[in-house]
Design brief:
Layout (H helix, E strand, L loop, with lengths): L1 E3 L8 E9 L3 H9 L7 E4 L8 H4 L4 E3 L7 H4 L14 E2 L22 H14 L28 E8 L4 H10 L4 E5 L2 E6 L9 E5 L5 E11 L5 H7 L23 E11 L12 E3 L6 E9 L1 H7 L4 E9 L3 H12 L4 H13 L1 H14 L5 E11 L7 E8 L5 E6 L4 H20 L3 E5 L12 E2 L30 E3 L14 H19 L1
Parallel strand pairs: 1-7, 2-3, 2-10, 3-7, 4-17, 10-20
Antiparallel strand pairs: 5-6, 6-13, 8-9, 9-10, 11-15, 11-18, 11-19, 12-13, 13-14, 14-15, 16-17
Helix pairs in contact: 1-5, 1-12, 4-12, 8-9
């Protein structure tokens, strides 16, 4: 059932088996997995079923480091979390993203990619996308359709799948029917108490913006409130005068990472008619149903290992020749797309450029050439290196609930920029070697980041996973070191961020954690 916490009697104590804090992708996945368990479950959500400005403002904080995304705009604080406006891009992390690497400090997860695959398969179902098969050939992209230098050995074509699943609207009705689940809306966890030794969680203090207060006592507590809020709640909890739960080694809030976004430069192709159709995504029906996918270019794992480079993904934008609109109009006419009025405009466009369209049709039919391209604009997403000095901590200001506001000190390392410049230089070399054209990179070894550079909203690493308590906040099972019954779910546990979108991995880890907790309690 779903309960408005503002209606509860003040001061009550809710007893449960598991308390999940946060109803985003991780929290809702956990709640669904506990639906058939033999113990009660409480799910605490700060917001309601829809966006509310006063709840969203609880994300407010300050930035003192490199320019950082506005915290009140980068996540959503209501049932379903940020899946209420996500782009739906899903793909697993690569095997190399899990590996310990001598050439890159602080890299390595406690387990490999293969060990997470069973939960990745289940995560595909939770996100309602296709199978755990990300080979371009399986999605209709033939190997001979990928021109060098994007066919290896240094760069290769990959695909991601697109989910349209908004976890709140999609799974709310299912959770309402669960007799063992009580989901409390407008319920803000403000402190976790663990006795004088901070080793065993016994109570979660909860407040509403309307002034109501109550407590939850659980055998197990799981934080699933996001990459910023997970660390904030740990820092604000524990014994009086302490430095927070799980923070014996001053790691909570450190190693803050996001994905780095920027323009990579411009490729001027040697042949303007080169066929780049492999870069066109869309719906594919090769798995017994239509699934949306998007192709992209990535630095190969072999080159990352050989050259000591982190992950980097490339997205191509095309600057077509003036004839392109007429060719696209012809395709719409042939496919019968668009209303009658637009078909007349398309016909006019084709007739007005008949010579160019006819030339393209002949070249396409005889030589498989593509629409003439003037340039290829590259957009990059790259991995930020784990950095202990990139962090968040509690500031002196407090929000309406009395919780300390967050201060973000996001920092990059010099290697973040030099590794990117090295990768772009390698791409330029490969483009020239293959006779594909010439790259005008936006970043050089001795230059600054491009003007459009920014760190995105994928907050990771602030409660990082490591078997050694001196190097991580949680262990390989996502349990907070030094505690017996406190766990963390979400991207805050990621030791490294890779370059792939994190949600599918968040869901896979939540499924894995749910299986572990069920074994503990049943």
């Amino acid at each position: 059932m779903i309960i408005d916490a503002r209606s509860l009697p003040a001061g009550i104590v809710v007893q449960t088996g598991v308390c999940i804090i946060g109803a985003g992708a991780a929290g809702i996945t956990l709640a669904r997995e506990f639906s058939n368990a033999r113990f009660p479950v409480v799910l605490l959500e700060s917001g309601g079923m829809d966006y509310e400005p006063e709840t969203q403002e609880l994300y407010q904080g300050h930035s003192i480091g490199s320019p950082f995304q506005d915290l009140t705009a980068s996540r959503l604080r209501f049932f379903g979390g940020t899946t209420n406006h996500w782009g739906g891009w899903c793909l697993p992390y690569e095997a190399i993203d899990f590996e310990a690497r001598d050439d890159l400090p602080y890299h390595g997860w406690p387990f490999g990619r293969a060990q997470l695959d069973p939960w990745y398969r289940r995560a595909q179902e939770v996100c309602r996308i296709g199978p755990l098969d990300y080979r371009p050939a399986s999605w209709g992209i033939a190997a001979n359709a990928i021109p060098p230098p994007f066919a290896g050995p240094h760069f290769e074509c990959k695909i991601l799948q697109v989910s349209e699943t908004r976890f709140g609207p999609v799974y709310a009705a299912e959770l309402v029917r669960e007799p063992q689940l009580s989901a409390y809306l407008h319920a803000n966890a403000v402190q976790i108490s663990a006795g004088g030794t901070d080793t065993e969680i016994y109570e979660i203090s909860v407040k509403t913006l309307s002034g109501n207060q109550f407590a939850v006592r659980a055998r197990i507590c799981i934080l699933a409130a996001g990459g910023i809020e997970n660390a904030r709640l740990l820092l604000a909890s524990g014994k009086e005068g302490g430095n927070g739960l799980g923070n014996e080694h001053d790691l909570v809030g450190r190693f803050l990472m996001v994905h780095l976004h920027y323009s990579g430069g411009t490729i001027v192709p040697s042949d303007p008619h080169v066929n780049l159709d492999f870069q066109v995504g869309g719906d594919y029906g090769g798995f017994g149903g239509k699934h949306a996918f998007v192709p992209f270019i990535a630095l190969s794992a072999a080159s990352m290992r050989r050259l000591g480079l982190p992950s980097l993904n490339l997205w191509c934008g095309f600057r077509f020749s003036p004839i392109a609109p007429a060719i696209k109009a012809l395709k719409r006419l042939i496919g019968g797309e668009g209303p009658g009025g637009s078909r007349l405009a398309d016909l006019s466009e084709v007739i007005g450029n008949l010579d160019g369209v006819a030339s393209f049709a002949v070249r396409k039919g005889l030589f498989g050439e593509g629409i003439p391209i003037e340039a290829v604009e590259l957009n990059c997403t790259s991995e930020q290196q784990p950095n202990r000095d990139s962090r968040l901590f509690l500031g002196p200001e407090r929000d309406r609930l009395g919780m300390p506001k967050i201060v973000v000190d996001w920092r990059l390392t010099p290697e973040d920029r030099t590794n990117t410049a090295t990768t772009l230089r390698l791409l330029g070399t490969e483009i020239g070697r293959a006779g594909f054209g010439r790259l005008r990179p936006s970043l050089r070894d001795d230059g600054d980041w491009p003007d459009d550079f920014y760190g995105n909203e994928h907050h990771m690493g602030t409660t990082r996973m490591h078997v050694d308590p001196a190097l991580g906040v949680v262990d390989e099972n996502c349990r907070v070191h030094g505690t017996t019954n406190l766990y963390v779910a979400g991207s805050s546990v990621f030791p490294t961020g890779g370059a792939n979108n994190p949600t599918l991995t968040i869901v896979a880890l939540a499924l894995r954690l749910a299986d572990h907790v069920k074994k503990q309690l049943e």
